[in-house]
Amino acid sequence: MITIMILLFIAGYTLIALENKTGINKTAIALILCITLWVLYIFAPPAQIIDADKTKFTEYIAENPALKQQNLTEQVQNFIVNEEMIYHLGDVAEILFYLLGAMTIVTLIDLHHGFSGITRFIRTHSKKKLLWLVILLTFILSAILDNMTTAIIMITLLGKLLDSPKEKWIFGSAIVIAANAGGAWTPIGDVTTIMLWIGNNITSGHIMKSLFLPSLVSCLLPVWIISFSLKGQLSAAGSVAATNETNPIGLKQQNTILILGILSLLAVPVFKSLTQLPPFAGITLMLGLMWIYTEILYNRHPQIPAQNQYRIPYVLKNIDLSTILFFLGILMAVAALEAIGILKLLSHFLDVKIHNIYFVNIIIGLLSSVIDNVPLVAAAIGMYPVLSPEAAAALPEAQYMANFIQNGAFWDLTAYCAGTGGSILIIGSAAGVVAMGLEKINFIWYLKHISLPAIIGFLAGLGIYFLQNQL
Known about the structure:
This protein is mainly α. It has helices at residues 2-17, 19-22, 26-42, 46-52, 54-63, 72-111, 116-119, 127-144, 147-158, 165-184, 191-198, 204-227, 251-275, 279-299, 312-317, 321-339, 342-353, 357-368, 373-383, 389-394, 398-401, 409-420, 430-439, 443-449, 451-470. It is globular. The chain is built from 25 helices and no strands.
């Protein structure tokens, strides 16, 4: 059964990766893959299910003595339905509810043109200066927003500043690198860091301190290389980021919603550290507060037409629920592989054959340039449980096992490599796919002109992290 599940997962993921070729939405494939794997899991031989985690199964039966009257197959199926599936669904739900709240706040800002307040300050005639302004702004924004949203904002801005398609490709590619690097060093900057943070693999203060410099280097070095291909000045028409967007609530309220939205996102790590409640609780509270603010705002301005009132119920209709369902499908599919013990076997293979956290994470980084980084990180989390310092010290090779405690080097590297490795190819990240769609960046062009600088930046940041660790 294990072999069948592995082959099915590979086949399903191949169809997900070939979404543009097949014309079938990846969310549909992920949902089917998820349930099919759980069906195969529940009909696997009972001995195989028990062997995956004998201790957990034994404890479950001991806690539910009524099950001892049932046969082994019924015991195992009850264990899967009421223990394994509920346990993994709870972990996945924390991620999904956090993303739903964060996406709602970001969409609320966007519908009120709040991000125009940021881009309005970009004023320069130099193409190179513009590149650096855009990149630094992208790096900062993607640490707060997700990299896809940041890429959309900045690439849309470029359409008002640049005329040359070639220059749009250069700027768009640099934005992809900066967005992925910026999202890697904060707990809320990328789905993968959110997953590690929610799973208590990392803490917010630690990841920011450990990965800021490596992420910054992985951004600045390739952009510096790319900048040599830019020469000359912008046209007079394109030198100012003018916007013609109108908003019935006015510029003051537009900026207020931007500030409150960003503060709401930044408040979530603080809320978690103060209360110890999971991040979805913090984002839910912040969303409720933003909801009340917008209700009061529009109630005080009844002259605004109903069709121009972007209240939260309207915003929720504009959320990309397809993405939420995709994460549900792919994360629960990986959970099925974890439950039956496949990820444990894979971690054992990596420990025996490679036994180096840097090489393992370089592989994760290279794979993330082709494969979606969400299942990669989910697999890494499933392969290596977070150890307490005491448990790691008691194991053979205590120094190596210390890499897997909370805030251990393995988790830092997973966040860094999965995030920045997606810049190596244009299809390797949500930001890259957005740039490819909006500016029609050619895959082969990106491979020839951008992939090498991206690899150099990726390895340079890895080197910086290694030096930090040694010091």
